[in-house]
Amino acid sequence: MAVTGPTAKKQFVIVLGLNGLISLVVWFYITTYPGLIWSATSSMTACLPAKSKDLKEWKAENLTNSFSVEVNFEPTDNSKTYRDRNTLLYEKCETLPVDRVRGRRPIYFFAKSKSLAFCKVPKAGSTFVGTVVAALELRKKPGNMFHMSLAIVHGQNEVDFSTLSKYSSSVVKKILVTRNPYTRLFSAFTDKYFVLGARPKTIATKKGKGRFEMRNGYCGYDISFQEFLDYFTDLHIAGKEVEEHTMPVSSLCYPCMVHYNILCKQETLTADIEYVLSVTNISEPRRQTVMELIRSKSLNDTIYASVSYHMLYFNLYPNDCSSKILLMEKVWKVFQLQGYISLSLTFPINSFQNLTDFDAENVTTLILEQIQSRPLSKSQMSKQRQIALAEAYSSIKPSTIARVQRMFAQDFHLFGYDKTIPTRHGKNH
Fold first, then answer.
1. Are 300 and 291 in contact (CB under 8 A)?
2. In its keyword annotation, does this UniProt entry include Mitochondrion (predicted)?
3. Which of 131, 127, 243 is nearest to 185 (CA)?
4. Each residue of 330-358: pLDDT tens digit?
5. Which of 30, 32, 249, 326 sits at 20 to 30 Å (Cα–Cα) from 135?
6. Which of 26-40, 140-154, 316-330, 385-399 has the lowest mean pLDDT?
């Protein structure tokens, strides 16, 4: 029976008032937190491919295995810096079609006891982040966890997205770490392709290149930075899978599909991680312990972690490098490119030959002694790194640069990095 008279008018006023209240709440969130009100409808529209014929393929690839768009109506945090980063990211997501580079699906370093998950991005502080997560998950007070091989951290406390999605998105805080594509790719080359391992061997086989000859022996393979860039951009153009060190962050972590609470940058990673810890549900003693661990990280730890990692690869690929001394000569060059060792210092081959115990600790001690003989200030280290980066890209073909820019277009756009080629005086952040 229809309600009429005063009762009907009263109900109408109540409904009208409720609708007005709801509208007011929605208006408040939209004006206060633009970009954070990310509805399922608008997010799906933003992520759809530009061409409708790609729709079935996109759905099959992105909406299976528990992938779904998350709706988060809570403000990311109370800091303007991090709030602005997220606001800009999700506003840009609304204007971009899907252009994902083929490769592995998202993996997370997951501190389960702290409900904290970091998307794993190789060559964007992933070892640092993995170490922090491991320290958070330890029940006892951690020792110097940065003084270990780079390889030890990886594989621990890792989950895929389908596992992570079983936990409530309102409980688990998700963190994304980005890095300038130019510096990330050069770091991938020097660390994973220049020295030793299966990756450079694969390119050498494809390109018909031989071993990298040195002195009276050889170590690794004769792969240039140009050939490295051409190799993975060729794979992308051919629609083939690309290995994780050369995948864009946007393809590794799906930022336009998964809502990240905090956006960190490798360029400011220590400060960003300290901020993450300050807004995470962690006991104060544990927070202080982990922050002290982070602040105590030294050059000794950095050198040791890298040396022990490359010595592990020497044992894994004994036929690819004729001596440990030649291996360390290549690692020495990497440390110079990274700004740790002055370019004015030549490789001290006699000192390495005189080592009685050729292990990671003794090699690290020797390298640190050489560094202290001609130490660099922080500004000198930064300048040396920037010059090495600029010189590396100065010899790359313009057509290859254009392919890199297209492949990493979403990273440049979403995370605010300059597409200009690195220069000797530029920061490119």
1. no
2. no
3. 243
4. 999 999 999 999 999 999 999 999 999 99
5. 249
6. 26-40
Rounded Cα distance, 226 and 101, in Å = 20
3-state secondary structure the chain: CCCCHHHHHHHHHHHHHHHHHHHHHHHHHHHHCCCCCCCHHHHHHHHCCCCHHHHHHHHHHHCCCCCCCCCCCCCCCCCHHHHHHHHHHHHHHCCCCCCCCCCCCCEEEEEHHHCEEEECCCCCCHHHHHHHHHHHHCCCCCCCCCCCCHHHHCCCCEEEHHHHCCCCCCCCEEEEEECCHHHHHHHHHHHHHCCCCHHHHHHHHHHCCCEEEECCEEEEECCCHHHHHHHHHHHHHCCCCCCHHHCCHHHHHCCCCCCCCEEEEHHHHHHHHHHHHHCCCCCHHHHHHHHHHHHCCCHHHHHHHHHHHHHHHHHHCCCCECCHHHHHHHHHHHHHHCCCCCCCCCCCHHHHHCCCCCCHHHHHHHHHHHHHHCCCCHHHHHHHHHHHHHHHHHCCCHHHHHHHHHHCHHHHHHHCCCCCCCCCCCCCC
Nearest to 70 by CA among 169, 173, 172, 174: 169
Q: Which two tokens stand for residue 212?
A: 């990298």
Which residue from 249, 226, 269, 243 is spatially nearest to 403, judged by alpha carbons?
Answer: 226
Question: pLDDT-based confidence at 143, cuts 50/70/90?
Answer: low
- Contact, 315 vs 335, CB < 8 A? no
Give Cα separations from 23 to 18, 46, 85, 91, 238 (angstroms): 9, 24, 27, 22, 49
| Those residues with Cβ within 8 angstroms of residue 32's Cβ, 6 or more apart along the chain or in another chain | 75
Half-sphere exposure of 35 (CA within 13 A, CB side): 19
With beta carbons less than 8 A apart as the criterion, state whether 289 and 142 touch. Answer: yes
Check: CB of residue 207 under 8 Å from CB of residue 223.
yes
Compute the chain's Rg from CA coordinates.
25
Burial per residue of 81-95, b for 16 or more beta-carbon CB atoms within 10 angstroms, e otherwise? ebbebbbbbbebbee
Strands 116-119 and 107-111: antiparallel
351 closest CA partner among 374, 335, 368 = 368
Token pair of 207, please? 């390109």
Reading the block at residue 359, the tokens are 């292990």
**In this structure, what are the phi and psi dihedrals at residue 263, rounded to the nearest 5 degrees?**
-105, 115
Q: Which residue, 271, 239, 266, 272, is CA-closest to 411?
A: 266
Residues 72 and 168: beta-carbon distance below 8 Å:
no
